[in-house]
Amino acid sequence: MPRAPALLWLLLPGLAALEPISVGIAIGAASALTGYLSYPSFYCSYVECCPGDGHRLNATALRAQLDARLFGQHLAKEVVLKAVAGFSRNSSPKKPLALSLHGWGGTGKNLLSQIIAEHLHPAGLRSKFVHLFLATLHFPHQHQVKLYQEQLQKWIQGNVSACPHSVFIFDEMDKLHPGLIDAIKPFLDYYEQVNGVSYRKAIFIFLSNAGANLINKVALDFWRNGKQREEIQLKDLEPVLSLGVFNNKNSGLWHSSLIDRNLIDYFVPFLPLEHKHVKMCIRAEMLSRGHAVNENVVEVVIDEMTFFPKEEKIYSDKGCKTVQAKLNFHWDTVMGDTKAEG
Ligand SMILES: *[C@@H]1O[C@H](CO)[C@@H](O)[C@H](O)[C@H]1NC(C)=O
Ligand SMILES: *[C@@H]1O[C@H](CO)[C@@H](O)[C@H](O)[C@H]1NC(C)=O
């Protein structure tokens, strides 16, 4: 009963002091109140609540956020909007939603996960219904895999029992021990219930670099053939995101067991970022810090980035990953200079 009880507890001390007859009325009023407020916005503006089943994700708002914050990823946007909005509209999904995000570091996988989380739970990554796991941070020791397995299963079970709309994000999937994949698998499957808990409304997001080199190659081929990046379609990447990746030992065998059983619903490719996209990241970061965009700073920061391949230098090695750190480093210097000039 995690949904509304605290409101009742707030009212109960007051009830004890009342005459029996008014207690009856007060209890009636209280239950009418909690019934009316099946998603009690007053209570929930102080304490984070799990969204009720009638709650729908706002796809317009999600699209607007993706447009404003995620750059150069027309495919990822399209897939995620379709997947997440569709899942949120479905009142009886047959399995939890499982997304697998692939691409080079800094291309926006973490950002996209964060944006999805924020649209399901306004507190985003800080929400108690959103759980982020980093393979190397949370599960670092090979010899403790047994312990991690038990822990992880207990957590997933406990959290989904408390809120069916829980979101689980697993970063660095390539580094996650196969035993832990096995531990997650039962929750992703088409079971109505596992030990009395239904996992069908939960969302699992897996992040990895697997397939990144192949995705980059497709993008580069398009570029070399004089075609627009936006012309790249999902079908151009399908072969890459199915067999190519998963038979390659270096990119991790973890997928095979999930894929064989069709437990992943969508593969989401992230393209390597060009100069103009990195510049967009830099400008967005300035704005998010409450500063006006300063093109001098943009140039200084972008000049420090490295691009590949060696000859053409089209794509950023680290995507937008180092933008924040570089901006921290250069901001004062450059702003100081501009002030001095002015
Ligand atoms: C969805 O989001 C849009 C844009 O932020 C907003 O204008 C609209 O009112 C929202 N719709 C609902 C039902 O909240
Ligand atoms: C929910 O998951 C977190 C880890 O993200 C864990 O610390 C917590 O104990 C879990 N809650 C329950 C009720 O299992």
TrEMBL record:
ATP binds at G103, W104, G105, G106, T107, G108, K109, N110. GO terms for molecular function: ATP binding; ATP hydrolysis activity; kinesin binding. The keyword Membrane applies. Gene3D superfamilies: P-loop containing nucleotide triphosphate hydrolases. GO terms for biological process: nuclear membrane organization; protein localization to nucleus. GO terms for cellular component: endoplasmic reticulum lumen; nuclear envelope. It is found in: Endomembrane system; Endoplasmic reticulum lumen; Nucleus. Belongs to the ClpA/ClpB family. Torsin subfamily. This is Torsin. It comes from Dromaius novaehollandiae. The gene is TOR1B.
